[in-house]
Each structure stands twice: as C-alpha cells, then as structure tokens.
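Q: A reviewer asked whether we had any structural model of the full assembly, not just the individual parts. We don't, so I'm hoping you can provide one. Inputs are below.
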Amino acid sequence: MTSPQATARRRIHYPEGVRALTGLFGLALVVGCKGQVGDPPAQNPPPPPTVSNYVASESVARRLSQAELDATLADLLLDTSGPAVRYLSEDEFSPYDNDYTLQQASMALIDGLEVLAGDVADRLVEDSARRDTVVGCTPENDGDEDCFRAFTRRFLRRAFRRAITDADVEPYVALLPYATEQVEGVDNDFYTAVGLVIRAVLQDPEFLYRIEVGAEEANGARRLNGYEVASRLSYFLWGSMPDDTLLDDAAAGRLDDAAGRRAAAERMLGDARAKRHLYRFHAMWLGYRTIPHGAELAGRFNDETNALIDRVVFEEQRPYSDLFLLQETFVDDMLADHYGLERPADGSGWVAYDEDRAGILSHGAVLAAFSKFTDTSPTQRGIFVRNRLMCDVIDSPPANVDVDQPPEGDPDDCKTERYLAHMGASGCVGCHSQMDPIGFGLERYDIAGQYRTHDDGREECTIEGVGNLPGGATFSGPRELARLLTDSGEIQNCTAQQVFTYAVGRPLKPVEFEAISKLTTSFLEHGRFDTLLLEHIASDAFALRLEPTP
Amino acid sequence: MSTSMKRRTFLRGAAGAAVGLPVLECMLNTNGTAYAQAGTAPRRYAIVFAGQSIGGDHWAKNENRIDGRNFTEEGHFIAPAATGRDFVSTTPLTPLDTVREQYSIVSNLRIPYDPNSTDPNNVPPGGAFRDFHGGGCSPLLSGMRSTSGSFRANGISSDQVIANLNANQATIDALVLRAQPSWYLAGSSYAGRQYLSYRAANDRIEAQTSPQIAFTSLFGGFVPEGSEAAARFDFERRARRSVLDLVSSKRQRLLAQVGAADRIRLEQHFDEIRALEQRVAMMPPIDAGACQALEDPGADPAIGGNNAGSGSGDIATNTGYSNEHERTRLMCDLIHMAFVCDLTRVATLQITVFQSHMNVHPITTMMGRPILSDQHEVGHNGDANNRGQLAVSTVLQWHVSHYAYLLERLASTQEGAGTVLDNSAIVFLPEGGHGRQLNDGSTENQTHSTENMVVLVAGRAGGLSPGQHVDGAGAHPAQALISAMQGAGYAGDSLGEVSGNIPELFT
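A: Here is a predicted structure for the entire assembly that you could use as a starting point for your response.
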C-alpha cells in the first residue's frame, strides 16, 4: 500500500522543457532521463517538509476552455452547434484542456469571440422556439422595456453566474433603441436588441472567465461567496455553467458549508452532464481522447469504455478499482468478434472476459493510445503506466537521443529483441529499464486491443508478454497489471492526483500533496470515485482560494 | 501628393493611441493607384513557414523511392546545383518559375551547435540545443540560442521587430495567421509548435486560424455599395460599437475587484477588446485603385479529425486534414490585399506548424504523387513505398506553391512605378535542413538537422536584388532574415545573438 510519505516523495515539478514535452506521450517523444546516454537515472529529490502548510490552492481567473464554452452555450442558449470549436483556436491538452497557465488573450481570440457572439446571437434570434425560451417574456411592442429588462436580468444572472443588480442591467437598456430605430433597409425589432445583449454578454470577461475574488480570512486565504462556489462545483462536475437550482442554492447560502456543498454535488452527480463530463475527464487522463483508428471502431471503443465508467461509478457505485479489475466488458457483435469474445445475448451487452483481460486496460481505446511507429511501443506503454497510472514524473529523454527513430538493430530481429538490444545498448538501460519492461507485459495486445502471440506476419517471433513493474513485480497482461497497481494503491493515489490537478486547472504545487494525501488515504478505505469527488468538494479548501504569489 | 503633408493621417482612438487611416483619396494619383511617388510606399515584410525539413532520414539528396521503386536522380533537393543568377530550379522551386526573377534562394545555412556536448550551458550564441524539435525553434525565429527542447523563442521574432518599426502606421501592426488549424494527434498537444511570432522571449502571439474570421477582421469595415446596403452597414457598425463599448465600460469596475494576478490577465483581455474597438471606430476603408474588398470566403473548410494513423497505411482515410490547401490560398489572398490596402505591413503565415502531423495524402494526391503518411513521418520514411528526397520535396513543393501564389499576387499589383512586391521582403522559411542529426551529432543524411538549411527571400524592398542562388557557406538562417528585415527598413544588423546579413542578397 502506498503511504502518504511515498506519495510526497514523488517528483511533481516538471523541469524546464518538460512541460512542453508532456503533451507528447504516445507519439514522438520517449520520456526517459536527463543528461547523456549512459548517465545513471536521476535521483528523486528529497521529500518536502513534513509540517502541514496547505490551507487552500492558488487560483486566478480561468477562461472557459473550448469544451466548457460549448457546453455552457448549450445550457445557456440551447445552442448545441459547438461554436467555440468552430471559431476559437484549439486548446492545448496537458493532458487536460483547462490549464490556465497556458491561456493568453490575443487578437485572434478577441476577433474569434466577436464573430462567435454574432453568429450565436443571430441564430438564436432566428429560431423562435429557442429564442422564446431564452427571452422568457413576450414583448408587447418592439420597445417593450419591461420585458427587455426582465430578460436581461435573468440572462445576466445565468451568464455571469452571480446576483444581478439594477445597476448591472442599466447599461444594456441603452441597446433597446436599436429595436425601434427606423432605418431604411433594416428590418429591426425587439429581438434585434435581444441579440445585441447576447453579443455583449458573450464577449464579456465576466462570462468568459470564472473570476473568483473571495473575502479575506485571518489565515490569509480568501473565502469564496456562494456563487463562486457554485461555478467551481458546476465546472468541476459538469464542465458547464450552474443551473438555476444551483444558483438558487448559492443565493440562499446553502453552499456556504460542507454539508450544503455535498448535498448540491450529490444532486449534480445524478445529472447526465456529470456522466458526460466524467467520460471526457477519463479520455483526457488516459490519453484516448482521440485514437489512431477509424471512426466506426473508435466509436465502439468509446461506447465500451463509457459503459464501464457508467457501471462502476454511477449505476452500481462499485469500488473504483473495478474500473481496472472488472471481468466483463460491454460490446456489440462487431466488437465481440474484434476481440474474439463471445457475442452478447441481445446485440449488445456485457460479456465475460477471458483470463488475461480485465477492466479498462484491456479496452481498445486505452491500448490504442500511446502507440508509436504504427505498432505498440513498450516504451510508450511503460511511460503511460508510470506517468498516467502511477503519477510518476519521468524526465525528458537525453537530448542526444532522437526519439523519432525506432530502435535500431538488425531488422531481421524480432521486435522484442530489438527493444532489448536497444535497452542494453550504450548505456540506455538506466532509463529504458524503468519503462520498457512494463510495456513488455502488455505486448500480447496490439493497438486495436486484439490478442496476438507473435509479431505481425512472423510466427517465429513469439511474444512472451511478460513484464515487470519498477521494483520487480512480474505480470502478464492487463488483468495482472491492474491487480498489482490496485493492490499497491498506486492507481488510487494517482487518481486523486489527477482529480485534484483537473480541479485546480494547472500543474500541482508541492504543498497541494498534503491535501491529495488526505484524499488518497480516505479513498483507499471507501474506494468509491463519487465519494472521492464529494470529499474534495466537502473539504474546506474547496471554498477557499489563495492569491497567487508573484 | 504634397510633400509637406504627412504621408499618413491619424485619428485619435478612444484611448488616445494613434491609429492609422486607410489610404485616402487625396493620396491617390489620377489612376487611383496609391503612392505614385517613388519611395513613398510602405515596405512590407512577411514570413511563410513550412513545418518540415528539406530531406529524409538515411536518404542522400539524390536518392529517391517512389511507387516502391528506388532510383538516383538529381534535381529534387531544394538547393540548385549552380549558384548565381543562372541556376536551374529544382523540384520544390518549380512553382516559382513564374516569378523567377523575384526571389533568391540562400542555401547551405546552418544553426550552430556544440557537437561535443548536450549541456544547455554549452549552446553557442544563436545556436541550437541538441534536440532538433524545439531546439531549432528559437534560433530560427529570433536568433537567440535555445537551452531546452521546448518550442519557444527566447527573444523577439523578426516579424515583430518590423511590426514595431511600423507601429500604429497601419490598421493592425501585424497579421498573424496559421493555416493548419489542428494538431491532429491523439494523446498530445501543440505544446508551442503553433507559434511563429513572439513579442519578446516566450511572449508568443496566437495566430488566427480561421480565414473567415481573418477576412471579417480585415475587410469587415469596407462599406458596401448601394444606399440600402450602406444604411444596413452603418446600423450594424453602430450596433457593433455599442456592444463593444458596453463590454469595455466594465473595465475599471471589474479590475478594481480582483487581485493583482487577475488584473494582469484581465487587462490583457480588455486591451485586446480596446484594440478591436479602435479598428471598428476607424473610418471605413475606401475601395480605391488596387485596394478592393475581397469577396467573403464564406464558412471555413471543416476541421478534419485526428489522424487515423501515424505514418501508417491507415493514413489514407481523409482525416488529419482540414483543407489546408484552400485555407492557405485564402490566407495568401488576405495578406496580399491587406498589404495593398495598407491594413498591415507585416504578416506571418504558418502554413503548417512545427513538427506538423498534417496528413499529406490529400495534397500529394492532388499533385499526382500520393504519399500515405503524415507530414512529419514523410521525413522519417512513413510511407514504405514513397521515401527519400522526392517524397520530402513533393510536400515542400506544395508549401512553396502557396508562397509562389502570394508572390504572383503581389507582383501583379501595381504600386507607383512598380509593384507591391517591389516594396516587399517576403521570406519562405522551412523548419529544418538535411544533414548531420542534431540530436546525436553524428548520423548523416538526417531530417532532424539544422545543417544545409535554406531560406528564400523575395521582393526588392530596400535594395534587395532577387533572382539569385546564394551559397550561404554555413551562415546562420537568421542572417537571411536580417537581410529581409533590412530590406523592409530595419536599420540594425542583428537579430538576437546573430549579426550580419547575407550581402549577396543586395548585389
């Protein structure tokens, strides 16, 4: 079992240069060790001080990611067309798309937002059903100020996610004359002005950023108000804006204490948005957001993996370790044939795994991620296990290694021999022995998750499929690997780190490992993912923030 | 045009900053062409970038494999055999044959590195950290040495030096565009590969990736013909200004509420909104002479999904491609007309990002030589049947064809006694060379190399004398940039840690 002490020893600071490389697992960069080939592996730094320092996490104004903005527009304006993906630059995934340290305003962003706002507003105004729902009143004439004010007040509250005053509404009334102005060739009416309100709001930093202020407390931390907590909750659990119920909770002070936050979160976990968001979180974390397969197969892989997340986390609320250990998987006939499993009874459903397979590590989605050179890469899979499942930070490779080159050696050799020769060559063993032996244990599964016993087209090249974790534990296949990682608590510890990283929206700071240790200790006892989320939400720090130190 | 009149007339924007007006009628000659007097036209500077090297791994410059057949043939490596003005154009250069006398190629350029050490402290001035991807970025763009494999420039990029020279002279100081709108790979991210323009060390400028939005931004201010259309335009423009004014008016109140870190973040956002307000507030440009509003390009081509393979046979499916061909063409049109109308004097166009993984199958099929690979893997022999120099040069030729198109447009637009191209310095910049591998410092004929690099420089601004093949003899590629910068009016003789131009480019 991983002790908190062991957790704290983990390296968590990405050295200069590695930040940029972390996005590259799985394709072009082998992440190994610093220095020259032949240098001994880097030593872990000494553990941080044991005195408890953690009070709260630093936060700044976080701009909505493309995904968050699109989900928010769907909830706010019933616009499901994905405008942010269409009009804004692609987010960086590191591996999460919400790293605020990578966000920077630019002319490209501002121009894109203006066009986005205009397009979203125009389409809403033209769609009377959506429009009437959003406006919420029927104007008696084009200049109906009462209806205009009522709409604006209600819309601002939802868009800015806070209480709205008369003073907030007043500036927008200046847009109402555009509804009644007589201009030849211009067909304007009440909804012209409504569209302008929407355009203004969608370009407003209060909408685009989650701005947290808070009130200073004696210990220097700042306590968030109810609305700020509501936004934290909704973007953490839903990846979208708070609904009216949550805003009402905030207004009534129900989010000011741990019990109230927990109750609100429990309700929210029952919503479809929580499921959708958790699918996406796992896909970013485990690297299968997109995979090197055609749309049909990739779609089935996603259905399979999402069904497992559903069953373990939501439907049966099983121990989260079952995500890695469950002996069944959800397939249709095509996927069953693909894997060589029995077909399900009714066209699609749960079927039993054979001996080697278990849980998500047997899924085509996960086995497809981290491939390289059109095949599995034992090195990349080793990095996947170390980095994403054990949360070990692996330094960048020595500069003098060109990681876009497959291992050299005799092309007539079998793949395993080539990797072994490479590992033994000129001092590479120090680093590659920390990665490749893990991947060897999964080598009997190709990048489509199919079982194989020898190299493609070469029967003489038998794949042994036996690997070792750091420390020497031997395993063969996904089931044995999952057993080792869950029994040791490695995955549970790493899961808590991943959740925390996503919650704060940036790389972790050393002091935050205290909070993660607490979550992990409890997680190892209760085992449930929803409880892990709820305990984080119920912690006092969830309602606090620190001003960043310069 | 009266010599006593300032060439540019300025409006005072809301914040008091000087903003440039478009060409006024009083500045035009009787033919409607601007800048009739010699030497009055603004000088323009642009970089067109290709995110690839110029040769393939383990294949010499005359070794090719096409359709599964190996053969030896000269003329496919980008640098011509002969130097001087009588060079024969090579496969990547053939699209430039229509503008043969308008560009020069500088070959045999080299970013220095320490062959004996990978220690970041031992990187020479202007040199490359010994990791090709990332390590080559800073010296290439900024002339500053790299000290890690991160994709970041450690100083101001050449285009921004010229933008600063021309600050507030045109509607926007620099047009920053990128045609490749997506990274296309699973499990990873750009991580800095998408930046070409830097205001200062690591202060990167996000590029506009949408031709549609770039069009709206540049040409949305042109008043349409017809009174009703003009009235609608005026209504819309007033509404647009009211909306932006409303957003901007919250600035002080919001900034007063937040902490120091957020003040900086939000100020930057509000500053960009203010810049947009100023652009909208300016008098609408007047269509005059060669300056004409472009046709609205309509919705952007759809963004393709991620690659269904990486260098494999799976790549044939039409993913990993967002019609960069059409996007690049549209962006060249925008740069051309933005230069003609003096909406900007500086542009960067990153056709493909550093270490691009765009699927090249659609473009190479269009060119009649289909390659089943993504762009990065072409250099690493991704397609078993199409490898070596001609494969790499085919993809490079596609990039050059867009550069050629931009040059043709600029060369066919009259300005004063000459053409717009005569008043421009337009650079074509590939990411890497072909030679000794930077990472291990020993393997020859490698795509991950900062040796044997090339830079193309087109136009006659500032006395540039195009039409030559210049042997750079190991000069730094930034020296070619310095030459182009000087052509565009830069009085200095250095970029970052690199000094000196390529003198032949002016003779």
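A: Points you may want to mention in the reply: The longest helix of chain A spans residues 295-315. DSSP finds 27 helices and 13 strands in chain A.
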